[in-house]
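Format notes (please read before filing issues)

Several people have asked whether sequences and structure tokens are stored in separate files. They are not. Every record keeps both together, in the order shown below: the sequence lines, then the token lines. Line labels are part of the format and must not be stripped during preprocessing.
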Amino acid sequence: MKSTGRCRAHTNIALIKYWGKRNEELFLPMNSSLSLTLDAFYTDTEVVLDDDLDSDEFYLDNTKQGDKETQKITEFLNLFRNLANIETKACVKSYNHVPTAAGLASSASAFSALAGAMNQAVGLNLDLKTLSTFARQGSGSATRSVYGGFVEWSMGEDDKSSTSHAVPVDDAKWDIGMVVIAVNTGRKKLSSRVGMKQTIETSPFYSSWVETATSDLTKMKEAIKGHDFITLGEITESNGMKMHATMLGAFPPISYWEPDSVKAIQKVKEIRETGIPCYVTMDAGPNVKVLCQQSDMKKIEELLLEDFNREQIIPSTVGEGIKLLNASEWNY
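Then the structure lines:
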């Protein structure tokens, strides 16, 4: 007997950052966060539950993955199998339309898509709120990719997994856009998980960052409610730089930046000085994201081309939440 689920999920870029867990096993964060889902980057995933399989199989972009990668997928699928009281093995095929492990939130779209596909294949019919708590246990930021637009990830209470989930805040359909400057799309040398743990354990700045993140989130939600783009951008840039400052304070210091990262940041500041409102943010990787108004994206792209190649500049509009795909939409 076979049962199939297919799902698409888009990446999200945190504007109020998540950096650090209070419970590593359950992926419970130290603070609540807020993100923007992007249309340009996404993952399509198919899960086929098959009684004839003796073990789980995992293919990423048509390449069969090794035991280490497959084991992580198995542990995630077990969350659903345990709830459904089944042991059926699965063949997972995932296609990343975003560079893997490059600081472009590939794990967010990957585990959100996997959660949606497995939910369909098993027939659990979990609601989106509950599904986001499952996605979170694959990759923390995946909890936010369940929804489109501006999304909050509530940190939850104590070690109660069910209380830490995504909440849709706003559809962001008021002239919001983002331009990614792809400085380096190769796999980063230091994973986010290792970087988070090292920062929490050794950076004297970390506790202050967590405290200010709470007030940043409150102010940002007010800015979103009032469609105040300038305040939204200023908080985004400030919060992102504070996160990276905590990493520089770690021992040994952590930096995901490259020379072109600094070059990109300076260029965005120059563009802003011309009167075009645009603001930078960076995750655990060298690539720079530029929060802007969608109506300004073309002008910003043209100005960035003065210093970067066309293939390095990726504009994106606002992305939607997870979407189940039927057989005719599965073009792989």
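For reference, the curators noted about this record: Residues 2-173+324-329 form a domain with the Ribosomal Protein S5; domain 2 fold (CATH 3.30.230.10). The chain has eight helices and 14 strands.
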